[in-house]
Amino acid sequence: MNKEGNIDFYKFLIKSCKFSVTEMKQDHDHPLKTATQINTKRLYKFNWTLSIVLSPYDEFARMEWPIHPSIRTALPEGLGFVASIIIWRSYTKSYKQHMLMNIEQTRLIEKNNSLQALAVQDPLTGLLNRTRFVDLVRAQLHKQNNKEASILIIDIDFFKHVNDQFGHPAGDQVLKDLSAMLMRYFPPPSLSARLGGEEFIIFLPNTHIKQARQLAEMLRENIATFPFSYKHHTIHITASFGIAQATHSFQHSYSKADQALYIAKQNGRNRVVVIST
């Protein structure tokens, strides 16, 4: 019996008699009047006003009926047996166990999906993480067949000042907003990743470094004029860019772009520097 007072499972037990149960009948439209027939020369029936809730897996089971307390037998007196109804809780328990198993399975799936996402994504920004980015770029460079491609590294200027002045939550919001901007500027098949801290990297397939520089200049100007915000604060930032042509060696290309970024910072920041390989 469930907590609403309805029967989830029922079983019939006939004691002290030589009769056998031969048939069970149920009517979904009315309370269960005829429950069983007795195998004798003459058929007798148990009559009661008991309503049964069927399997909770069935659509019909969503309609629960109240239980009435009276059970009336139509058998002649003196036959010398007792009819009993035993209400089991096992069905309810098995249903709850089934539901708990489903909940646990759902949790495991969600946890597995989260772990898979952590393996390829930066948890704060949703961009690729460094490891996944490097793997994908190396695969792309292997398939480039001497086609031009560029690598672009971006570093937010004086980002520590943002955290110190507005707090780390504000800094995190700036990183997320800038990441969204990068995804708009460099949609697939470009690849965008967060290297760590306030540093980002972009892989631009089929893009000459001259074109990459034009794109970087547009983005640099947009970053410098965009009003990043956190709560009631408006935050202004600038960024430095280093660009290099991508070669078959990712490490070589990355080193050149990083060198260009270093020069941009040394020369006053908020600028784009290109190094040809």
The neighbouring-strand order within the major sheet is 8-9-7-12-13
Query: In angstroms, what separates the terminal alpha carbons?
Result: 78 Å
Structural category: alpha+beta
CATH superfamily of the largest domain: Reverse transcriptase/Diguanylate cyclase domain
Whole-angstrom Rg: 37 Å
Characterization of the model:
With 277 residues, the chain is an alpha+beta fold. The protein has 2 domains: 10-88, no CATH class; 130-275, Alpha-Beta Plaits (2-Layer Sandwich). It is 38% helix and 25% strand. It has 6 helices and 13 strands. The strands form 4 sheets. Strands 8-9-7-12-13 form a 5-stranded mixed β-sheet, sandwiched between helices. Strands 2-3-4-5 form a 4-stranded antiparallel β-sheet, with no helix packed on it. A two-stranded antiparallel sheet has the order 1-6. The termini are far apart.
Task: Note the main attributes of this structure.
277 residues; alpha+beta; 2 domains; 5-stranded mixed beta sheet; 4-stranded antiparallel beta sheet; 6 helices; 13 strands; flat
What's a quick, concise take on this entry?
The chain is an alpha+beta fold and 277 residues long. It has 2 domains: 10-88, no CATH class; 130-275, Alpha-Beta Plaits, CATH 3.30.70. The chain has 6 helices and 13 strands.
Q: Strands, helices and their partners?
A:
Layout: E1 10-15, E2 21-24, E3 32-38, E4 45-50, E5 71-73, E6 82-87, H1 90-120, H2 130-143, E7 149-156, H3 159-166, H4 168-185, E8 191-196, E9 199-205, H5 209-225, E10 228-230, E11 233-235, E12 239-245, H6 250-266, E13 272-275
Parallel strand pairs: 12-13
Antiparallel strand pairs: 1-6, 2-3, 3-4, 4-5, 7-9, 7-12, 8-9, 10-11
